[in-house]
Every structure is written in structure tokens, then in C-alpha cells.
Amino acid sequence: MYMIRWTLNVALVVILTAAAAVFTFVFIRTFFYLPDEEIRAPPGETLEEAVDPTQHPARLVIPAIGVDADVQHVGINEAGNMATPSNFEDVGWYKYGVAPGGRGSAVIAGHVDNSLGLPGVFKRLNELKSGDDIFVESASGERQHFVIVSTRSYPYDDVPVDVVFNPQGSARLNLITCEGRWLSENRTYDQRLVVFARLANETET
Fold this sequence. Notes:
Layout: H1 2-31, E1 57-62, E2 67-74, E3 91-94, E4 105-109, E5 133-138, E6 143-155, H2 161-164, E7 172-183, E8 188-199
Parallel strand pairs: 2-3, 4-7
Antiparallel strand pairs: 1-2, 1-5, 3-4, 5-6, 6-8, 7-8
């Protein structure tokens, strides 16, 4: 009887341990693992230090799709791509490019979902249309108003870097996320959605 009870206790411990391991694995993948939503980015020295820290972007607000997110400052990863936010609730400003409101195109990226398909900050980015509003708040609390001009989709490996990361011209803001078909072998989607916006007080060109 003692051996039977001992065996049952051991079996119960093994089952509970295995269940805990599975739960931990799923939890980590759900809340910390993010698909590859990166795009090739032009190299360059960081402009983060050249810009007054009070003007660094701190929050992104898009009323039409309910986005109100913190802004991380991201650079380039080992693959030479624009790095992405460390979670699926924040967005990432490309700190080697243009600051929002400065001359040229500022770039902000966000995840569309995580490994289990839970919605990311830019899950509804494809719902935006021309004329919708985007607001970027700086560290000092100053709010800049952008208006969407157009949206475009590109193959994930053929995004026009010179257009998206354009350092010249009028002040622009470009938002990036993934869409399309999931490529399991590459752990990414086959399309990149880019939303192009301009400062509200500037004439469209």
C-alpha cells in the first residue's frame, strides 16, 4: 500500500511539473516572443543625441484605431534591419533617422500581433484612411499633429528604403507594421504595410 501511494505521489509531482513547464512556455511565447516585423534600414549615426531630449517622441496617439502607446527608441539589429519594440504594446521610433516634425520622414514601427495571434499595437493599422489624424507627443508634452496621406503594401523583402526613410523634404511620419500571409520558415509575414502622413499644417506635396 505504501509503495502504491508513493508511486501515485511521484506521478502527481511529475504531472504537475510538466503542466507548469508547459504553462510557462506558453506564457513566455505569448507575452514576450514577437514575430520578425523588421525591414531593411539605412545605416547612420544616431540622431537621438543630436535632438533636444525634450523633443524625443514619447507617445503615439491614433484616435481612429484606439492607439495610445509609449514610444521606444530603436536602432539597427545584427541583420541590418530596423529593430522592433521589445513588446507588442509599445511602438518603436527609428532613432538613426528623423525625429517626428523634423525635416524628412520619421519612422515608427509596431507589431501587428504576437506568436499566438494576440493583437499588437498596430493590429488595426490597415483600417486607417487618408485624412485620419495621428498625434506624436514629445518628452516635454508638446503634441504634433499629422494627417494620413496614403497607405501602401510592399513585399517584406522589397520595401523602398529610400522612400520610407527619406531624410529630405517636408516633415513626414511613416508608420510600419506587417500584414499578409505568415511565412513560417522565415517567421515573418510576407507584406509590410506603410502608412504615410504629413504635418497637418503643411501643404501636401
